[in-house]
Amino acid sequence: MTIIQHAVWLYHRFPLSYRDVQELLHGRGIEVSHETLREWCIKFSSLFAEELRSREPWRGSRWYLDEVCTTVNGVRHRLWRAVEEYGFVLDILLGRHRDTDAAKTFLTKLLGEYDVPEVIHTDQLRSYGAAIRELPSLADVDHQQVISTVRCNNVTLQEHRSTRRQERS
């Protein structure tokens, strides 16, 4: 089982193809075909991911939400991102719109995976406030709008750095 786990980890952790993983394992004396690796990834990836999720530490009770405009294949999209107080990226969502429905979809997706936070920090986009008011589970949450030019929302803005780096290259 450790060989399977290592092979699946290699495939998902690094930008490798099945044939690359096959060559790495061959270098260690393990003969596996790339088709077997593909089947292992299909069968065992969800099991390993669930095990890793159960080991994750408890998440902070402050969320920082932000969105950034990015271009995908020449089409402008919005990349919505939620970061918790310790810098862990909770979730991202790529969408075409920047309205209340998009913010509500993103918040609903977050609430499906994590507990309700105590405080939500957002920029001054009005869609966040409208979405928070529409969701009954967020009625008691302290919503704080911050001015990103003062760098109060700095945790989230730093998380967009990797996306911008990929966009430039």
The percent of residues in helical segments reads 40-55%
Q: What is the CATH topology classification name of the largest domain?
A: Nucleotidyltransferase, domain 5
Rounded average pLDDT: 82
Q: State the low-pLDDT regions, or none.
A: none
The rounded Rg comes to: 20 Å
CATH superfamily of the largest domain: Ribonuclease H-like superfamily/Ribonuclease H
Strand order of the largest sheet: 3-2-1-4-5
User: Strand content of the residues, in percent?
Assistant: 15-25%
Shape: elongated
Major beta sheet, specifics? Answer: 5 strands, mixed
Number of strands: 5
Briefly note the structural class of the backbone: alpha/beta
CATH architecture descriptor of the largest domain = 2-Layer Sandwich
In angstroms, what separates the terminal alpha carbons? Answer: 38 Å
Task: Estimate nothing, just give the exact number of structural domains.
Answer: 2
* Order of SSEs: HHHEEEHEHEHH
Q: What is the CATH level 1 assignment of the largest domain?
A: Alpha Beta
Number of helices: 7
Structural account:
The protein has helices at 2-13, 18-27, 34-55, 100-113, 126-134, 154-159, 161-168; strands at residues 62-72, 75-84, 89-95, 119-122, 142-145. Strands 3-2-1-4-5 form a 5-stranded mixed β-sheet. The chain has 169 residues and is an alpha/beta fold. The chain contains 7 helices and 5 strands. The two termini are 38 Å apart. The chain folds into 2 domains: 2-55; 62-168, Nucleotidyltransferase, domain 5 (2-Layer Sandwich), CATH 3.30.420. Helix 2 (18-27) packs across helix 3.
